[in-house]
Amino acid sequence: MSAAMDTESTYSGYSHYSGHSKKAHRQGRDRHKSPRSKDGSRSEKSVTIQTPPAEPLLGNDASQAEEGQDDNWGETTTAITGTSEHSISQEDIARISKDLEDSVGLDCKRYLGLTVAAVLGLLVFLTPIAFILLPQILWRDDLEPCGTVCEGLFISVAFKLLILLIGTWALFFRQPKADLPRVFVFRALLLVLIFLFVFSYWLFYGVRILDSKDTNYQGIVQYAVSLVDALLFIHYLAIVLLELRQLQPMFTVKVVRSTDGESRYYSLGHLSIQRAALVVLENYYRDFTVYNPALLTASKSRAAKHMAGLKVYNVDGPGNNASGQSRAMIAAAARRRDSSHNELYYEEADHERRVKKRRARLVVAVEEAFTHIKRLQAEEQQKAPGEMMDPREAAQAIFPSMARALQKYLRTTRQQQYHSMESILQHLSFCITNNMTPKAFLERYLNPGPTLQYDRDRWFSKQWTLVSEEAVTSGLQDGIVFVLKCLDFSLVVNVKKIPFIKLSEEFIDPKSHKFVLRLQSETSV
């Protein structure tokens, strides 16, 4: 599929005649192109994604912007054209719509689970109170006096319930980070255990206390205290199963991105496959550089250039079939393979040279721009109130002097689609506010950063698909491989168990460190 991502950033000093004439010429040329025929297995379609134009940056200072800006900024800053390896058809669009409908079902399932847990928790906290109050309501006159012992038990129950409430809120009532395909086994087992436990206490209470109307009120209160103590022990068990069990590293996982081969290693404990996948995705957004499909088009364009240089002539007439032409092209490509590495070497060397050259120009332009800014002190702000600017105005004032160098560097390194003019101005204003150096400002653009550094709408994938031969609720094991897929790429995760390490001890006596100086005739000593 030929995908053209054209993200235009409108600049107030931009030359309207030049931009509109180029776009009209390009649109007229695209309309006269004939659509390519289907090859039988996949269709060729063109998809254009445009973002709404940004607002003017310099306000009324358009004359200052024209002096420091290139006329082609709005036309060429964030436009990239390449060939994608994916093709979107009507079936794919229908599948995406179905996934959106399924996501609604996942939300209902999540809220249903929260509702069940909340109802069960409310039942747990009200049960000890009900055990204590029901005898006082139903047969108050028949109860034996309890006195100071019961009052002390009341205080104990109150504080234990308070501790249990705080611990339950801290452990269970958290903002969910993801929707997992299956239930969390240990959490479900704990809910079932609590339900059976409370149900058995109610059953015993109804048979032995309510039916017989037991008059030993101290024993009833102690029965409620024993319930609260057992609930505290269940909460401790939940902490061990849900939090402490996974802390000790037991496995090492290697995560490889399928498109460019970037990889990272992580250590995990005893986790299920779905929870391990969640940990991998959390670390992916933090550690992996942002996925840039523009960097992958170089090899494809190079291969297409080599094949475009081959011409096949049919000297035997129209009777010769296409298989002979294919063999001729393959043979010609094999003969040119020996010289293709030289072209690759000089192409990469030329690209590195251009990157270094434009990087040097960018560094110099930014350093010169930062020299025009001076932070005013408190006493200086009272002297010249008419000349003061806020960080946003200062960023707009110095941006035109570095805009062209930054534009060319981002285009050369193929990062322009991740940095709009508005985001650059916001980052520049942030650096000016916090008195950061030019080197700190350039760090975001000179080195590709992690995925979370960029705008959320440009990298965030709403839904990932977990592909595994094993059940996703089963625990990690040595040799397990699972894949996390999104629309553009996939993450291949290979699990290896940390080997058992055996250490031995060897004692060395400190008094055994004795040495003798050897003197020879030819030495200088």
UniProtKB/TrEMBL annotation:
<feature type="compositionally biased region" description="Basic and acidic residues">
    <location>
        <begin position="36"/>
        <end position="45"/>
    </location>
</feature>
<protein>
    <submittedName>
        <fullName>VANG1 protein</fullName>
    </submittedName>
</protein>
<feature type="region of interest" description="Disordered">
    <location>
        <begin position="1"/>
        <end position="86"/>
    </location>
</feature>
<feature type="transmembrane region" description="Helical">
    <location>
        <begin position="184"/>
        <end position="204"/>
    </location>
</feature>
<feature type="compositionally biased region" description="Polar residues">
    <location>
        <begin position="74"/>
        <end position="86"/>
    </location>
</feature>
<feature type="transmembrane region" description="Helical">
    <location>
        <begin position="153"/>
        <end position="172"/>
    </location>
</feature>
<keyword id="KW-0812">Transmembrane</keyword>
<keyword id="KW-1003">Cell membrane</keyword>
<feature type="transmembrane region" description="Helical">
    <location>
        <begin position="111"/>
        <end position="133"/>
    </location>
</feature>
<feature type="transmembrane region" description="Helical">
    <location>
        <begin position="224"/>
        <end position="244"/>
    </location>
</feature>
<keyword id="KW-1133">Transmembrane helix</keyword>
<keyword id="KW-0472">Membrane</keyword>
<feature type="compositionally biased region" description="Basic residues">
    <location>
        <begin position="19"/>
        <end position="35"/>
    </location>
</feature>
<comment type="similarity">
    <text>Belongs to the Vang family.</text>
</comment>
<dbReference type="InterPro" id="IPR009539">
    <property type="entry name" value="VANGL"/>
</dbReference>
<dbReference type="GO" id="GO:0005886">
    <property type="term" value="C:plasma membrane"/>
</dbReference>
<dbReference type="Pfam" id="PF06638">
    <property type="entry name" value="Strabismus"/>
</dbReference>
